[in-house]
């Protein structure tokens, strides 16, 4: 995202990167309309009585009012959709923080030296799994927004069992989109991966409930938070992939072109061939506004003006790490947290793949020649990334190092059922 300063006017007006006015689509459409307007001027000079001047002036005034209303609705509707997109991204980040903090608060730990070490390790693993899965889910959402696919980095974040489950459904090796031959539809690979991660989250919560790490009511509360994730993903997915209807876009461009040709016809008797120049300037402004509206309808993607999702996922990762760090410190098990603390940094593999890092650097460095760092707000810093050495170390770590609460151990580790039920209202120590 381009951060700018209003204090230096010329740098703001003359900066071309990310500009809607200097884009090739805007200038190309303006040239086409100017050529049509020139043809209309030639026709009108050959037949001056073809279009009466007084009628054209009145029609141009009415068309100007109509077009101003139409264009205002278009831009404000796009701004409203931009705000919705930013709110949805913030909501899914809030859900990630809420789920992690709630899972930490629900799991009870005994003081060090009293509790069973294996049970403490399993509880820590449950919290880490919740954090890892929710961060994986959010990162998949952001990857879908950026239209990127990183199966190699994704593989480094999975245990062997999880990778086998992904491979059985072929979503680990899919490209950006996959084709369903039976129903002839195009599906998003990241969306299907996120559905499996949601399943893992629910299974992890259910295993913790069976082991009495959380109560039935607490498990229901965690599942309720998980249920909000696919709804947010669907809203964000629709914002990224569903443009305005074709007939609306066609109608808008017909109005633009008709208005510009009407302007050329009205100015031709007075301005002559200079009318085409005025029409070209008006066309650049109109199509630039349409370009702005089309761009801000979706605040995500590879455009220079889109929201920096790379920086947001790194910020979410740090926030979740702080939550776990504070919780393990409060319960007196800081050592258990530090044993696998470096596993938390593995999530950056998915959020800063090579294409995403280069795109994030391009966005921020593109304005370095025009805007100094002092002119940009201090809170806006370029997204950081892992170095090549860090990535090599992280990729060399065996996926089994993550560990998991194994399904096969449930019956052995869980206490016997009481009153004919496998649900326990108490919290295990």
UniProtKB/TrEMBL annotation:
The protein's topology relative to the membrane is:
Multi-pass membrane protein
Q: Which Pfam families match?
A: Bestrophin_2 (PF25539)
Asked if the Swiss-Prot or TrEMBL record annotates the protein with the keyword Membrane, the reply is yes
Highest taxon of source = Eukaryota
Q: Name one GO cellular component term.
A: plasma membrane
Keyword terms of this UniProt record: Cell membrane, Ion transport, Membrane, Transmembrane, Transmembrane helix, Transport
Q: Where is the composition biased (Basic and acidic residues)?
A: 420-429
Q: Give the residue spans that cross the bilayer.
A: 21-43, 55-76, 239-261, 267-289
Low complexity compositional bias, start-end: 367-381
InterPro entries the UniProt entry points to: YneE/VCCN1/2-like
**Cell compartments where the protein resides:** Cell membrane
**Which GO molecular-function terms appear in the entry?**
chloride channel activity
Query: Where is it predominantly found?
Result: membrane
**Region (Disordered), start-end ranges:** 361-387, 405-429
- Give the protein's recorded name: Uncharacterized protein
Which species does the entry assign this protein to?
A: Phytophthora palmivora
């Amino acid at each position: 995202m381009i951060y700018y300063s209003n204090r230096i006017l010329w740098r703001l007006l003359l900066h071309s990167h990310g500009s809607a006015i200097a884009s090739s689509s805007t200038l190309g459409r303006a040239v086409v309309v100017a050529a049509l307007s020139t043809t209309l001027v030639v026709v009108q000079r050959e037949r001056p009585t073809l279009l009466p001047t007084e009628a054209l002036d009145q029609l141009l005034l009415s068309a100007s009012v109509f077009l101003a209303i139409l264009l205002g609705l278009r831009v404000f509707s796009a701004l409203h959709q931009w705000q919705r997109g930013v709110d949805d991204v913030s909501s899914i980040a809030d859900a990630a923080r809420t789920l992690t903090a709630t899972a930490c608060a629900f799991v009870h730990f005994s003081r060090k030296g009293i509790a069973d070490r294996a049970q403490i390790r399993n509880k820590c693993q449950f919290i880490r799994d919740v954090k890892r899965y929710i961060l994986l889910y959010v990162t998949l959402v952001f990857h879908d927004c950026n239209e990127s696919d990183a199966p190699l980095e994704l593989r480094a974040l999975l245990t062997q069992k999880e990778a086998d489950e992904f491979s059985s459904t072929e979503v680990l090796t899919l490209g950006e989109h996959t084709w369903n031959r039976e129903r002839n539809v195009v599906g998003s690979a990241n969306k299907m991966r996120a559905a499996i991660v949601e399943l893992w989250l629910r299974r992890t919560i259910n295993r913790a409930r069976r082991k009495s790490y959380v109560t039935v009511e607490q498990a229901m509360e965690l599942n309720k938070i998980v249920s909000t994730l696919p709804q947010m993903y669907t809203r964000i997915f629709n914002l990224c992939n569903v443009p305005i209807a074709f007939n609306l876009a066609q109608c808008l461009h017909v109005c633009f072109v008709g208005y510009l040709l009407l302007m050329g016809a009205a100015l031709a008797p007075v301005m002559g061939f200079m009318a085409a120049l005025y029409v070209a300037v008006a066309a650049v402004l109109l199509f630039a506004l349409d370009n702005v509206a089309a761009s801000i309808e979706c605040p995500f993607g590879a455009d220079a003006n889109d929201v920096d999702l790379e920086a947001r996922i790194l910020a979410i990762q740090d926030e979740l790490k702080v939550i776990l760090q504070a919780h393990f410190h409060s319960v007196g098990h800081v050592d258990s947290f530090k044993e696998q603390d470096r596993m938390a940094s593995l999530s950056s593999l998915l959020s800063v793949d090579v294409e995403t890092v280069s795109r994030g650097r391009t966005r921020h460095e593109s304005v370095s020649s025009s805007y100094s760092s002092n002119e940009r707000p201090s809170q806006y810093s370029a997204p950081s990334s892992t170095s090549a050495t860090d990535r090599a170390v992280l990729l060399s770590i065996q996926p089994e190092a993550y560990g998991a609460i194994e399904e096969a151990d449930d019956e052995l580790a869980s206490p016997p059922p009481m009153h004919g039920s496998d649900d326990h209202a108490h919290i295990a120590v």
